[in-house]
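Extended Data, panel c. Modelled sequence:
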Amino acid sequence: MGDLRGFTSFSEAHPAEVVLEVLNSYLIEMSRVIVRHGGMVDKLMGDSIMALFGAEKTGQDDVRRAVACAVDMQIAMMELNARHKESGM
């Protein structure tokens, strides 16, 4: 699972268009990372995303892929934050 730290206060302080832009870019990028590692997006809950590994068929490397995905999600988040900062968000 992953979510955006401080999202509630961010959403209260910014217009809906900005909030949706940030939320959509986050959810799209995290979904790409999850799928790239062979995971499945189970559900989206507000600013949270839940991924499953080994749900459709289990494998010897389910745990390794899940951990690698979590690391790549953190890296992708740093890149998203940098892009958002550059655009003034």
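The first helix runs from residue 7 to 13. This feature is highlighted in the accompanying rendering.
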